[in-house]
């Protein structure tokens, strides 16, 4: 199944708005929920992720949460890792740690310290 450019633009726009409104913060969100929320048929949404983003929904969502956690770690020093994990939609602070270790080789706090030293 392919998507025409109009459908791709619509999906991109809806996903951007969903992210801007903090939809990724819901730790229970999954593909069926997002499909229903955006009123995009699930096969079309799956096609968009697979063929146009070259990713899966879960990886895409994890990347968005990870980027927001990075931003918060650098800009919101007063927040604990528990608060950051909740605000970014991770199911637990342990999951936040796991993602950071996998992507950076560091825990969230060590990553923040290493980035600050480079500045």
Topology:
Layout: H1 5-20, H2 31-38, H3 42-52, H4 57-75, H5 81-88, H6 93-104, H7 108-118
Helix pairs in contact: 4-5
Description:
This protein has 119 residues and is mostly helical. The chain folds into 2 domains: 5-54; 66-118, Orthogonal Bundle (Arc Repressor Mutant, subunit A). It is 71% helix and 0% strand.
Assign the CATH class of the largest domain. Mainly Alpha
What class do helices, strands and sheet pairing give? mainly alpha
* CATH architecture call of the largest domain: Orthogonal Bundle
Query: Quick one: how many beta strands?
Result: 0
Approximately how much helix is present in the residues? Answer: over 70%
Low-confidence stretches: none
Summary of the model, kept short:
This protein has 7 helices and no strands. The protein has 119 residues and is mainly alpha-helical.
Record keyword descriptors for this entry.
DNA-binding transcription factor activity, 119 residues, Arc Repressor Mutant, subunit A, 7 helices, 71% helix, AraC family transcriptional regulator, DNA-binding, mainly alpha, 2 domains
């Amino acid at each position: 199944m392919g998507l025409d450019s109009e459908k791709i633009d619509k999906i991109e726009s809806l996903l951007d708005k969903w992210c801007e409104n903090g939809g990724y913060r819901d730790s229970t969100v999954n593909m069926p929920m997002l499909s229903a929320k955006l009123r995009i048929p699930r096969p079309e949404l799956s096609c968009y992720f697979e063929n146009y983003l070259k990713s899966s929904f879960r990886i895409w969502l994890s990347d968005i949460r990870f980027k927001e956690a990075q931003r918060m770690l650098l800009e919101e020093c007063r927040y604990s890792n528990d608060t950051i994990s909740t605000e970014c939609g991770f199911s637990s602070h342990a999951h936040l740690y796991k993602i950071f270790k996998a992507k950076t080789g560091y825990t969230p706090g060590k990553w923040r310290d290493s980035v600050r030293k480079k500045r």
